[in-house]
Amino acid sequence: MSERVPLAEAARILGMSQQGVREHMKRDLFPVPIGYVTKVDKRYQYHIYRDMLNRHIGKESEAETEAGE
Question: Is the N end or the C end of the chain the one with fewer CB atoms within 10 Å?
Fold first, then answer.
């Protein structure tokens, strides 16, 4: 798995509020997933990954760029 992205950074990249990103992830509203949501006890945890976020915004990952050469 690629590096994790803080929620605040993902929200800035997506042009959304942090709460908007949380709700989209919980309700599975992103057409291309940006990470995973887990629930521990009564708290949700949001795991956002760089490669998945890049794929969502249409940006190639470094691995895909190198594979295409």
Answer: C
pLDDT over 60 (residue 44):
yes
**For the whole model, what pTM was predicted?**
0.82
Measured between alpha carbons, how far is 17 from 37 in angstroms, rounded to an integer? 17
Tokens (6 digits) for 69: 């050469």
Tokens matching residue 20 = 């908007």
Q: Please check whether residue 45 is in contact with residue 39, taking contact to mean a CB–CB distance below 8 angstroms.
A: yes
The tokens for 16 are 């959304």
Of 28, 26, 33, 63, residue with least CA distance to 48 = 33
Residue indicated by tokens 């949700």: 44
